[in-house]
Amino acid sequence: MYGTLEEVLKVIAMTKRPLEILDQVLNGQPVIISLKGGREIRGVLQGYDVHLNLVLDRAEEEIDGATEKRGTLIVRGDNVIYISPSVE
After folding, report:
1. Residue 55: which of 81, 27, 35 has the closest Cα?
2. Contacts of 74 (CB under 8 A, 6+ apart)
3. Three-class SS of residue 77?
C-alpha cells in the first residue's frame, strides 16, 4: 500500500482512468468524501461501483467541531462531489 500523500499523488499521476485511482486506495488508504450539502466524510474505502456508490469503513464526520463516528456507511454516488486521498 502507499503510505504518504506524495506516493498516492504519484500513483494518481501515472494512472489513466478514474476508477483505477479508486482501485489504488481500495481496502486500506483513508479517503475524504465531499458530499452535496457541504458534508464531508472520512473513512477507508472498501468498495464502489460504476455509479460511484461507495462503501466506507471506519467512517467519521465532523459536525460543529466535533468528530462523530459513523462506522460502516454506504454513500449514494449521486451525492458525491469528489473523493480525495486523506493524510492520517
Report:
1. 27
2. 53, 54, 55, 56
3. helix
